[in-house]
Design goal:
The protein is of the alpha/beta class and about 280 residues long. Helices cover about 20% and strands about 25% of the residues. The protein is built from 5 helices and 15 strands. It has a 6-stranded mixed β-sheet. A hairpin with a 2-residue loop joins strand 7 and strand 8.
């Protein structure tokens, strides 16, 4: 490719920033979004699924890829079991490194394809900001900048900062109530309805790990959609804190086709399908 290019939000396009002659790389002719729910890269768990996601992106060439957060699991900064036997041996440097390896595998060769790459910081990544805040001596030494996400070509949206693309708001979770707890529900349909009623627009969230989808009509002839993107865990990955409810989680990638004014056609691509195609 001749020249250097970056995504320009104002024009919603990739522009030449080098001053050299040459056209941008061929862009996709679609208006599709690929959404990757919470992937939780963790020490001791294979990162093979990030290679599979990379191959899917290269095959489908969507307009934009959105990672919904919690790619870095950061168990070393978990305070729920700190000081117990379960936390023995955890190291922040290892947690950061396994996430960076995952990002390298996911991002390889994507910048050249004229695909917008969006990373939404999740509550697990935000653990490192809380650590810096409660230990001021680490301020500026550690933080989400430690992950070097931008170095892989991704735009970064802060924890709970909404990101709107083609009429869909993407957010790690939608806070509600006095304490800002995530909008959820006993069942996936209840969660989808809660998101629609609270957001009053098309919205997609991560965090919950269950897949949910719902829609409501919008006068005069539109619709708004709510989606919980599930997660993107390896088939062999078990989160000890979750217990039996993990069986309700859905792992895979969401493919939204022809996204316009918050409306789209949705396709679920399961982790099993990805392993079968690229594993």
């Amino acid at each position: 490719m001749v020249g250097e290019y970056r995504y320009d939000a104002e024009s919603d396009s990739v522009i030449n920033t080098s001053g050299q002659a040459g056209d941008p790389p061929e862009s996709s002719k679609n208006n599709n979004h690929l959404v990757i729910g919470d992937p939780h890269a963790d020490v001791g768990i294979s990162n093979r699924r990030f290679y599979w996601a990379n191959q899917l992106i290269k095959e489908l060439k969507p307009k934009v890829v959105i990672v919904m957060g919690d790619l870095w699991d950061l168990p070393s900064l978990c305070h729920h079991d700190k000081g117990t036997k379960a936390s023995e041996g955890r190291r922040l440097v290892d947690d950061i490194a396994v996430g960076q390896e995952a990002m390298r595998m996911l991002s390889e060769g994507l910048v050249e394809l004229n695909i917008r790459l969006v990373f939404i910081v999740g509550n697990h990544e935000y653990r490192i900001e809380r650590e810096a805040n409660t230990n001021p001596e680490f301020h500026e030494m550690i933080g989400t900048h430690s992950f070097c996400i931008e170095d892989y070509g991704w735009e970064v949206f802060d924890f709970l900062q909404p990101c709107e693309i083609d009429g869909v708001v993407y957010q790690h979770y939608l806070p509600s109530g006095t304490f800002g707890r995530p909008v959820g529900g006993v069942t996936p349909s209840a969660m989808a309805n809660g998101l629609l009623n609270k957001a009053n627009r098309s919205i997609t969230v991560g965090h919950d790990h269950r897949f949910a989808f719902g829609e409501q009509p919008v006068y005069p002839d539109g619709k708004m959609y709510a989606c919980s993107a599930g997660c993107y865990l390896d088939e062999d990955q078990w989160m000890d804190y979750a217990g039996v409810p993990q069986k309700q989680w859905w792992s895979g990638i969401i493919h939204k086709k022809n996204v316009q004014n918050g409306m789209y056609t949705l396709e679920q691509i399961s982790i099993q399908e990805l392993r079968s195609s690229y594993g």
